[in-house]
Structure formats: C-alpha cells, structure tokens
# Entry
Amino acid sequence: MARFPANEIISLVGAAPRFDLAESVGPDLRLGELADPPELGALPLSYGTGEGDPWLRQAIADTHGVGADDVVVTVGGMHALFLLAFILCDHGGETVTTAPLFPLARNALDVVGARVQALRLSFDRGYRLDLADMRDKLSPRTKLVSLASPQNPSGVAIPSDKLRDILALMEARCPAAYLLLDETYREAAYGDDPVAPSAVALSPKVVSVASLSKCHGAPGLRLGWAITRDPELRRQLVIGKFNTVISCSPVDEALARKVFERRERIIAERRVSLAEGLRRTADWVHANNRLVDWVRPDAGALCCVRLKPATFDAAAVDRFYQIAADHGFRVANGAWFGDEARVFRLGFGFLSMADFANALEALGAALQQAALASVS
# Structure
C-alpha cells in the first residue's frame, strides 16, 4: 500500500484551540461579503473547464504581467504543487528544495518518487539561501528547483537579484530544469511596504504557484493556480488536472471572481492588520528577549521564533509545548517543517488584535513557566 507521509501539521484542520497562533492565514472572509443568495441560486452546477474560468484566468494573469493562456486554475495551490511534482519529477527525477519547508510541498515530491536534494536553511543565517550551497546541490540530473518566496514557515523572501543568480546557476548546471516558485504570500506585505513583483517574468523556466488562501482570506474556496509560459508544460498541467479532479468547482470559481473584483480592498485592509500584528510580535519578542529570539519576516502572516538554547534544554522545549496545549493555545512546532523543535512558527494574522494580545500574554507566561521549571 502506498502511503502519504504523516505530519502533525494535519492538526491545523482539526479542532481549534482557544488561541491559535499556529495558523499562517489571516481572518476568513465570509460568504456574505462576496455574494448574495440570489446570485448563487442561478449558478449551474456543471463541470468547469480544464484551464479554468476565462475571466478568472485573465484576472490572475493581470496581477502577474502574463497572458491568460499562461494560467491554469487548480484546486488550491497544493494541487498545482502536486501536479508539477508528478509531471517533472516522477520516477526518480531529481529536485532541489529547502529545509525547513511547508511539509505538504515536500510530501508532494516524496510521494511521486522524486530524488530530493535538501538545501538546509538555518535560523542563525536568517533562513537566507546561500548560492554556494545551491551550486553544490545542482547537477545535470536536476529536473526541478522548488522554492517559496516568502518562505513558509519563516516569511523570508528571496530578492529578485538572488533569483536571477539562481537562474544563472541553473542555466549553467541544469539548463533543462524548471524553477518553481511558490508565491502564495507575495502580496501579503505590511502596511505601505512595496509588493515584490512576481518572478514569473524573469524567465520562461520560472513557474509561479499561488492561491486565494493566504493573502485573500479564502482558504475554503480551494482555488489556486500555476503560471507557466512553457506551452507544453501548461498542456500537461491541464491534462493532469483533468486526470485528477476533472475541473474546479464552478461555485469556487464564481466566488473567486468575486474575490478578485474586491481584491484591492481585501488585500489593503489585510496589509494594515498584518503590519499591526507584526509590530505587536516585535514588541513581544523584545519584552521576552531573555527567552526567545526571532527572524523578522519580509511578508506574510507568520514568522519563526526560537527558544534560546541557553535557557531551554530539550526537556524544557517539550515542556513548553505541553504547557501551551494545557493553556489553550497552539504554535506550530518547527519539527513539522524539518526545523529543530525549539523553533516554532508564530502566526500573527489570524486572530483579532484583542485576542492576539491575550494569546501573546499566555505565550509569554508559558515561556516563563517552562524556563523556571528547567532551572528549579
């Protein structure tokens, strides 16, 4: 029996605690914000198209500076990641990716039999890619380089100049390979911070993947996309989509259109909230700097916080997670992502600011309790 890898991150779709600091999304949109019942009442529940709704593909294309024919709409961003893994890396195709990494992105590579070369990113280096390390991982056997910008769990982005350097390395070492860039958090900037342009314009070898889950507050729509300027890869994506799900739900696509019609307002409001969440997180880290440090994110509703090794041994780290569970809040254990357990992903965009303040207070108390127990 073939088995999908198990990971405790599946708990995020289970019963939620009182204060969920493990979530990497913003507050959920409500159906009533997008459409009135009469609008949905006339919607035919037919199959959608293989490529996806034409209006929706054009809207996605317009935000990335490409043509509508470069876009394939998928059932969430994970569907796109799985299809690309299957098409490009099936039966031992070699791929280079990072650790830590969103576990489902790694699992998609593992379950299709890819040979994975993991590029280790470290907290101490701010989760920044090292080009010399990447050069050592690339070879003529490399079919795919799979990265995220901003990354999950750290929120650290890859600058455009470094992406160009990566593409130059790939051209020299593995010219047939594709660079897959998960840009799910790209537009989740803070306040008036500039939004990084999509990397899809850098080269025909770049494939961009994203969804409505993170920046737009609509993970329940299960609506994502892959963008490629390679006609044959796009054709394979459409065929792969048909062979796995046939089409997206027309209900999801109709509601996604409503999201895109309102996207400027939706994203603008969320950037204000994210900026406030980031500010409060920075203040909390400063107030608890005897116990924790962090890597400040470039975008997204998430960051990585580390329990200081001088204060927390392995037993104290375990005790911290148990205290957190006992007190009704949750953070995302770094081990879920292939990092050390003393690092955790902290989400600062999901809760209201009032609840977030209470959650941070509880988190600080749990740190104090775990640290005191370790020295008593």
